[in-house]
User: What shape does this take?
Amino acid sequence: MKFVGLKKIVDIIKNIDNVYIVGHIMPDGDCISSVLCLAEGLKSMGKKVQGFIDWEIPENLKKLPLVNGIKKFKEGIIKPENLIVVDCSSPDRIGRFQKFIRDDVNVIVLDHHATNVYFGNINYVDANASSVAEIVYEINKMMNIKYDEKLATLNLLGILTDTGFFKYSNTTPLILHIAAELMKMGADIQKISFVINENRKVGNLYLQREAINNLKFLSRGKLGYSYLTKKDFEKYKIAENDFDGFVSEIRAVDTVEVAMFAAQYEDKKAHVSLRSKRYFDVSKIALEYGGGGHSKASGFTLIYEKSLEDALEGIAKKIGNLL
Ligand code: 5GP
Ligand code: MN
Assistant: This one.
């Protein structure tokens, strides 16, 4: 296990001939952007590269260039010599690709989560980076990768989604500068905004209504939480993967410091998203439940026994006592 700087990671990546690049399950814009931009950069240098994600890609993101080229996990897939894992703080985040995290595979981790457990042979983790897309931009720049409109658009995607279109606390002068550079290279910010913000299935809205029905507050409104069940997703024919989420709406309530939202995706299994507004470090809670993330945005998988509502109530009370 080795922690290296950016220059060293560029030297290492430059000397690789073939590699799998793997993103996380339940992929978001940053994950997809990072897999593709690194893959395209390395391909243009004549390397053999394939991008993988062991999960369905959200339908809206499939409308962006090259996204359909990301491959899924397949049984019998050949072991790679090199594996670059992006945007994952722990190995469980790559689903079945975990089987390649072994001594005879060179595992390189590129990440921006403070909770990263350094599971690679080589780890580059910058918790101050807004996104892994920002790190990939710096790597590609140091490798003199030529950007066309498609690559610039894809690189900007991860930056926009992880900064919430430049409204979260990870929005820095540097990332605004990088975004400007990407726009100069032809990044289509309107297209990204359209795909992410103006492209909602009406079922998504109805699901938000259900989530509002389930909404509860604790600790004088400092904690807000809600959930949706698999049945809800089935009723409105929206895959859990394609739901916009509801946690940001809860955080946006004036009294709220911590927001929690759970989406059931399998029997007795839900993905829980946590957000905070000013001071509470939600990554500590996520870590306690086997997940991880950032201080203001984290998540974990919740396996519960009886009802999701009861399980959430228990967690909510615990957080509520800390507020
Ligand atoms: P979200 O709530 O949008 O799924 O995730 C928020 C943040 O927490 C993201 O940075 C994401 O990578 C991280 N995260 C979400 N779920 C998990 C999880 O189950 N394990 C870990 N380690 N991180 C997670
Ligand atoms: Mn990210």
Notes: The first strand starts at residue 2 and ends at 3. The domain at 2-197 is CATH 3.90.1640.10 (inorganic pyrophosphatase (n-terminal core)). The radius of gyration is 19 Å. The chain has a mean pLDDT of 97.
